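In practice, a research group might receive sequence data for several interacting partners and want a quick structural hypothesis before committing to experiments. The following worked case mirrors that situation: the sequences arrive first, and a predicted assembly follows.
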Amino acid sequence: MTTNDRYSIFSILRQAWRGNTGWKPVWRDVAPKPAYDVVIVGGGGHGLATAYYLASQYGRRRIAVVEKGWIGSGNVGRNTTIIRSNYLLPGNVPFYELSMKLWEGLEQDINYNAMVSQRGVLNLYHSDAQRDAYARRGNAMRLHGVDAELLDAAKVRRLVPFLDFENARFPIRGGLLQRRGGTVRHDAVAWGYARAADRLGVDIIQNCEVIGIRVDGGRAMGLDTSRGYIGARQIGVSVAGSSSRVAAMAGLRLPIESHVLQAFVSEAVKPFVGGVVTFGAGHFYISQSDKGGLVFGGDIDGYNSYAQRGNLPVMEDVCEGGMALMPRLGRVRMLRQWGGLVDMSMDGSPIIDRTPVEGLYLNAGWCYGGFKATPAAGLCFAHLLSCDEPHDVARGYRLDRFATGHAIDEKGMGPYPNLH
Amino acid sequence: MRINCPCCGERSLDEFVYYGDADLRRPDPQDEEAGAKFIAYVYERTNPSGFHRELWYHGLGCRTWIVAERDTRTHEIYATCRAVDGGAPEGAAADRERS
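A structural hypothesis for the assembly, expressed as tokens:
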């Protein structure tokens, strides 16, 4: 083993004493074995978390994670790093609150600094109707034991005085604040889970693209990959953005469209945005990274895409939202912009479930909210893979919920994926 | 991405509204398996990586429904035609009008 030094203040001092020459690779570079008990497809945050919880919570062994590129090269490194559990519907709140609790203990659990920062998530409201909707949401959260505070304009002003409160069209009347929400260093989540899983014997196989799923008599037998055939008793597909492509290899058609979501970072400026702020009159949210860059985003582009890049109209729309909320943004230059592929499901909620193919399990449909769900999605998917039944907080995330009339439509848009 | 409207010529993306897969066909309600077929029609998508026939509505222009053939990996548009000429599914536009 090359990776099993525990990180602590003593390990840092010891390495500093040696001129930092003794650090070892954080996870092993392994070649695939002929067969495993469980193979997770997709080395993103969710896949790595699943592997970690399979090994740590459910005592599973002979686990592999196969990843097309390098781990963390997909959505876990492309999001805007926000964590929150400010949901409304009963099918969602307990799940996201479990995720929040796992975030709160994550760094001790995996012995890795993921820079979990509970700096608060503030959703602004601009009208009486919107205040009432947020009061309802806040009450739903508090009934589920989640923290929520409804702020009036004066209290919002004390938190974020630089907003355009007297905007003629969308004056800011207050906001719903979840103080436990915040941001996490997203790459560190992938690396931390990878390291922790590796320490428990999980094989992380990079540059290994799945090109086929072998199904025999309605049962998944293994995976054809760019590095050869890998047999598997259970296969967990955790490839949000490309779920339809992988599921199609097993002959499945999913209630999902792939869309592109863009994100933006400005040049670094002195700290002034303390937490995460969202504009209620358009789709715009912003936070400031520890490096000083303003991280912001808005709507998905709204058409099917696998291109990992978006188009100008959405950039314009996002920047208009930013200018309406925070006019001083106009003096800041945009530094970077990128796109990620998101699984837009038919009700805006995810899927963690068995599939009609025995031995094949699906974790998909995360829309633009997969990052905050990483720990709970990993835990619930591991639970499903080990107990063959859904975790208590993920019972609503069934693949067949559209057929049975149990859609979880947080935004109330109906089966139009580009509107969720 | 710019879309070549058969009536107006090449126009900016922000004049258009996206509707999705142009090859979905509304099932026959009298079909014995109409229930399952409607679930598939409303909720399931092929969602291909590559060639995709899709419906766009030129809402801020001539208000024509358009079928575009586009590569979802590159956003390249190969061809466009009016939906009424291009075998658009009956009822899709009407659905949208009603919703």
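Before designing any experiment, note the following. Chain A has ten helices and 18 strands. The mean pLDDT of chain A is 96.
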